[in-house]
Amino acid sequence: MALYSNNLTATERRRRFRAGFASGKIQRIPGAFSPLVARSIAEAGFEGVYVSGAVVAADLGLPDIGLTTLSEVAGRAGQIARATDLPVLVDADTGFGEPMSAARTVSELEDAGVAGAHFEDQVNPKRCGHLDGKEVVPTEVMLRRLAAAIKERRDPEFVVAARTDAAGVEGIDSAIERAKAYRDAGADLIFTEALHTRADFERFRKAVPDVPLLANMTEFGKTELLSAKELEEIGYEVVIYPVTTLRIAMGSVEDALGEIAETGTQKNWVERMQHRSRLYELLRYEEYNSFDSDIFTYRPESGH
């Protein structure tokens, strides 16, 4: 395996992502807040990696209210995409501006090597999908966003997904009608945000056939946490766990720091830490050492 990149081209990873939609097996896609987490996701046997806008913002110490830039998101997405052969799906928010901005977003994310991105129908700047006070743009405005994104796509395998936040604003019937319009406009994948119950997901699947659907299983939100098996039975093709790894990590970080501040030692946490040897495995230290040794011990044969 290459040391500084991955083994598959961006197009090959995009084809893998699309093939997963038709596989009959739900594609489980945890969020990664760093390239190292993406590598852990791959080794754990998942089908893809997600880059959450909320997580990129949080990692920068910002709330998820549309403050991050395209450059920041594309930069982090590119770092993550280089670290794994898995397809990477990116949260592109509202496309970072007007429809022309959505077009530029596709161009930048294609160059970053990711498999696809989803665009949402919230008013710009957006809010976290599970918070109250969201607003959605008229359907016609979202269709222009999608059209711009699709038109700019150079690689036809790049997945352009459409997210609708209308269920929490206008009701599930509106979300269904919007999803149908986005499907008909050429969206490859539909992401309906903040449905509440299994019955909601079943209703949505029945009402919006003939297009892959994505479910968001985020914690502490409005959605009942369903298992991947349950969602697969309903007929969903993709499930994301956008903030899970960050919440796990930050929960442990805060607990450990509190104890160290109180006791003056991390001794009680050593057994709960990732061991140095495991970190070195993920970082592929031995492969780097071998690469370095092979090059710097090379001696040309005499006479050449």
Automatic annotation (TrEMBL):
The gene is prpB. This is Methylisocitrate lyase. Its cofactor is Mg(2+). Pathway: Organic acid metabolism; propanoate degradation. CDD domains: ICL_PEPM. It catalyses: (2S,3R)-3-hydroxybutane-1,2,3-tricarboxylate = pyruvate + succinate. The keyword Lyase applies. The keyword Glycoprotein does not apply.
